[in-house]
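Here is one chain, start to finish.
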Amino acid sequence: MSASVSSKLVYLDENATATPDPEVMKAVFEWQSTWPANASSVHSLGRRARGAIEQSRRQVAQALGVNSRHLTFTSGATEALHTLIAGLLKPKDHVIVSAVEHPAVWGALSKLDVEIEIIAVNEQGQVDPQDFRKAKKSNTCLAIMMAAQNEIGTIYPIKEIATALGNTPLLVDAVQAFGKLSLKLEETGASYAVISGHKVGAPQGVGAIWSKGGQSFSPLLKGGAQERGRRAGTENVSAIVGLGFAASRMEQRLKKQIDLVQLREKFRQNIQDLFPNEFSIVGDFSTETSWEETILNPSWLRHGQLPNTLSLLALQGEGDLLLQQLDLAGFCLSAGSACSSGALEPSPVLQALGLSAKQASRGLRLSMGIQTSDEDLRALIRQLTLMYKS
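Its structure:
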């Protein structure tokens, strides 16, 4: 293998877990180190913890453009998705699901005796909103669609999909969109949505459910009356404080995405110019115009690509070997969803785009964060040059 050109670790796997925001982690530490009582206790410290949770709920609600009473804190997006899917569906119900959903969705559905209708995507990972309307049946009780795809970065026209579905509830996995696009859930037409803290610089182990109008769902975890009876268990107050503080800093985070898209576009052009026979790029970048408008005022009416994400397809060699070589050279990337990477299987998302299992095993995801620099990406270009041109 060629020598490394990087003198430090370059982290380009932000879609798996974002680099912690130092200001957020400071707030978490300060809470954790100053009498972190149980928020269900009635004494003064318990009331203080309850107040911290409710303040965080208001902060998250403001960032999402929703009523704080319609938010339920969870341990993360996987629990949130399992809670909603199990709590909204009954045996023999019909559910519509896109072919590119997160493994957590498929895991939750696999536990239920329901009829699943899969909506196909094209070679860019895009969907036709009218396919959701055509798939509806008399027993359709739920549709599930990501706001943005975690592996390939495709943004989905959620509002148009919700319109096509009519009165059928739409559950939106908003995990990757949150913090990368201005996400005003009330404007999307969705009925339910989930987010995760560790994608926006908050700690791992916290997420949230939003239900439009406070619509009910059966709790997955039963027992205590925490979260208004929707999620039993002692709240992870310090992590919730972190999520709330991260949400309060959302404007700064979104503005940083405008810088990131410029870095991504420069890197994408370099890949196209320098490695036309080594890599192809997944996704449709032809519709991108004003990124400031797309990030800060998304209409949710059209497809696009996340500002920080680039999905590459190696045209030769083995994807796992490429990742190992880059890792040894100090570059941290991924081959797809971090939640399924240990399976050593070709990406189901890339296969849904029409790629063969062999082609899908050659996927490489680059996802940037607020600390990513132009020098990081130039170092990666130099490393790829050593590996492919030496």
